[in-house]
Amino acid sequence: MTDERHPPATTAGADPARRLLRAASAMAVGYADTVDGRRVAPDPAAVAALAAFDEPLPETGLDPLATLRLLDEVGGPATVASTGARYFGFVTGGSHPVAQGAAALTAAWDQNAALPVMSPVAARVYDVVAGWLVDLLGLPAGTRPVFVSGATVANAACLAAARDAVLAGLGWDVQSDGLFGAPPIEVVVGERAHSTLSKSLGLVGLGRDRVTVVPADDQGRLRAERLPRSTGPVLVCAQAGEVNTGAFDPFDAIADWLAERSGWLHVDGAFGLWALADPGRAGLTAGLDRADSWATDGHKWLNVGYDCGIAFTRHTADLHRTFTAAAGYLPAATGPDRFEAMHHTPQSSQRARQFEVWAVLRTLGRAGVAELVARTCTVAVAIADGLRAGGLTVLNDVVLNQVLVRLHDGPTTEALIAAVQDDGRIWCGPTRWAGETAMRISVSSWRTGLDDAAAAVDAVLDRASRLHPAGRAPGVPGT
Ligand SMILES: *Cc1c(COP(=O)(O)O)cnc(C)c1O
Predict the structure, then answer these.
(1) Which of 132, 135, 328, 381 has a CA that sits 20 to 30 A from residue 421's CA?
(2) Which residues form a coiled coil (predicted)?
């Protein structure tokens, strides 16, 4: 069959290539059709069947269509159904269909977003989405986002720029001379900073343990009255969204404290930064715009695919100082109208993550992102209420999309989590809170609604009742 607008390609390889793309998109549709009807965690038999991948490297190439089929038929059933509505594990979003569509289309484009000259379309869409993100989140004028692989790297990118800026203020050029012999700077973190923040600090040479740790309160918020008395320049790492409770640090108090010193305020907002898009959460986010840099993820709450982190800073020149590279074949000097991603990010060549972010923001609009945040937070409250009524203890103030619960004690809670995972109707995992295991439920998918809250409560209480057949069955709430 000949398509008039797309005459047959003259190269022999073109048509089989298109057949592969069509087959892959049919497989993707087939996956989307079935994923809702199955367990959230894959069936153990499907996981066992992954042994089919254990083949030696073929000496000669195998059929590419058969290769896609193997991936689809053996790999698909062994996936975790995080695109469904009932995955509450970690802080993992789903991925919006328009993000999946944009990813599939732009994978066929194979654009390198390092430089505008390599991809005018990636550069233009970046410019648009950069403005949209700063507008949506209400960050200060002049703030610029850059795309990296996730919040770990977004934190590291911001901290590297902060390190170089603070040390430049002390007359030290880190890019030229490294950190050996540099004047010391104090790094301040909250006691409940995310585990990966240590990794980011280590990566940029500031040290995982060479930090001043400020105690946190019972929700995991940094206690501003316990900030150190330091006088010298400080690099403060605050947090929007504690990974268990969803709590936000007191940004105004931290910014006031820093205003009496010199330094840099960075905020890890891997998921919590999106609360800025919901006007109903202004109390939580007060003072958040006073930071120098912010890290977030697209692949969590915004529901784009992996891997998409976003580093924002109001000091773009500092990012440039840290990440610029020169080579004879690279275009000379950047102008204000020509933003070059490779000179502002840890990557050189890079995937154009902006396409998916742009597609989701265009599809949802300002109101849609606000609704996504507000709805998932409402679902979290409904789950907390349902579980509390069923006899579990809710351990956190549910201010965002995170719910932390315990059934009796740590060991009972562990047994409950295992039973819920085995049950397959929903999936959520454990964490440690106040020295004991707790069940952590994160509501981060664009698909999750109040029906799913009810289903999650049913699944957990049903499993809880079977753990305690002797009269501990969750009863009807008293009032
Ligand atoms: C998830 C998370 C990170 C790490 O993000 P990645 O995208 O996995 O690199 C950092 N900080 C917080 C608070 C997180 O929730």
Answers:
(1) 381
(2) none
Q: Residue 274 belongs to what H/E stretch?
A: none
Query: 157-172 pLDDT, tens per residue?
Result: 999 999 999 999 999 9
Q: Which amino acid is at 329?
A: Y
**Rounded-to-integer distance, Cα 201 and Cα 169, Å:** 20
E strand or H helix at 478: none
Probe residue for ligand 1, chosen from 297, 310, 402 as the CB with the greatest number of ligand atoms within 8 Å: 297
- Is there a contact between 301 and 92 (Cβ–Cβ < 8 Å)? no
196 in contact with ligand 1, CB cutoff 6 A? yes
Quickly list DSSP for 317-362.
HHHHHHH----TTS-----TT---GGGTSS-SS---THHHHHHHHH
Amino acid at 32: A
Our answer on whether the CB atom of 151 is closer than 6 Å to any ligand 1 atom is yes
The answer to whether 167 touches 206, Cβ cutoff 8 Å, is no
DSSP 222-235: B-GGG-----S-EE
For ligand 1, is residue 370 a contact (CB within 6 Å)?
no
pLDDT for residue 14 is more than 90: no
Q: Rg of the chain over CA atoms, in angstroms?
A: 24
CA distance 246 to 239: 10
What is the rounded (10 degree) CA torsion for 140, 142, 146, 152? Answer: -40
What does the pLDDT read at residue 335? 56
User: What's the pLDDT at 479?
Assistant: 35
Question: In b/e form, how buried is each residue of 45-75, taking b as 16+ CB within 10 angstroms?
Answer: ebeebeeeeeeeeeeeeeeeeeebeeebeeb
| Ligand 1 pocket check for 91: Cβ under 6 Å | yes
Atom of ligand 1 nearest to the CA of 150: 7
Predicted structure pTM score: 0.94
Centre of ligand 1 to C-alpha 296, Å, is 8
Query: Percent of the chain at pLDDT above 70?
Result: 93
Task: Name the residue of 148, 191, 196, 440 to mutate for ligand 1: max ligand atoms within 8 A of Cβ.
Answer: 196
Q: Is the CB of 297 under 6 A from ligand 1?
A: yes
Tokens of 290: 């006073």
Q: Which residue's alpha carbon is at the smallest distance from atom 12 of ligand 1?
A: 270
pLDDT of residue 231: 86
- What's the CA gap between 98 and 396, in Å, rounded? 34
